[in-house]
Design brief:
NRBF2; mainly alpha; NRBF2_MIT; 4 helices; 223 residues
Length: 223
């Protein structure tokens, strides 16, 4: 029957492929075109007319070409989807980096504030110690007994003023060390941001947007 001829079935497969393309079902569309090309080859074995064979040959090439075009279109969509996902991921990473940098700044401010408070406290203790020393100059107190050392020696007690000066020295050393760490952190952050900017430039310019593929229409009226 005519409705069961290879050529008729090939035309059905071609129309099915078009419907699948509209819904972006690329694999199904490719399968339909591949089946259509097989049916066209069968139809070519059923006729000896040169004009009919020429028309069938054109249809066969059309379905083969459509198969390649659809595969390329599928790959294009997959690439664009990956690029969109990558850009979204990078945007989220940049947002997370901004939050981290904010926390770093807050931590730096807290460290510096703590050191300033320590300086203020040491200054207060030093002034109080000096006032006490001035007040006690007129009073002759007996010196306290030094504590015994387990090794048999005697440990001399440290004067309050000496302790305060030692604390001030330690605090200054700590300040210098923290300032060095903060400078290194700031330098590393600038270097990382520079690398991120270069990476974003490569991502934005390295893969241009692909133009949509146009699917040609075959005119069957010449059959």
């Amino acid at each position: 029957m005519e409705n069961e001829s290879p050529l008729y079935l090939a035309h059905q497969k071609g129309r099915s492929a078009d419907r699948h393309m509209k819904s972006r079902q690329y694999d199904l569309a490719v399968s339909c075109h591949e089946k259509a090309s097989e049916l066209i080859q069968q139809a070519m074995t059923l006729t000896r007319y040169a004009k009919a064979l020429e028309s069938l040959e054109l249809q066969y090439r059309y379905h083969c070409k459509q198969t390649d075009i659809i595969k390329a279109k599928k790959l294009q969509d997959e690439i664009q989807l990956k690029v969109a996902e990558l850009k979204k991921k990078k945007k989220m990473e940049r947002k997370a980096v901004t939050v981290t940098e904010q926390k770093d700044h807050e931590l730096q401010a807290a460290i510096l504030r703590t050191m300033e408070e320590a300086d203020s406290l040491l200054t207060f203790l030093r002034h109080r110690s000096e006032r006490r020393a001035a007040d006690n100059d007129e009073v002759d107190f007996p010196p306290p007994l030094p504590p015994s050392d387990p090794a048999g020696g005697v440990k001399l007690p440290k004067d309050e003023k000496v302790v305060i000066e030692e604390l001030r020295t330690v605090n200054n050393q700590l300040r210098d060390f923290v300032q060095q760490l903060l400078a290194q952190l700031d330098s590393s952050r600038r270097e990382v941001e520079c690398l991120r900017a270069r990476l974003r430039m490569y991502e934005d310019n390295g893969l241009p947007d692909l133009a949509p593929l146009e699917l040609p229409n075959f005119d069957y009226s010449s059959l």
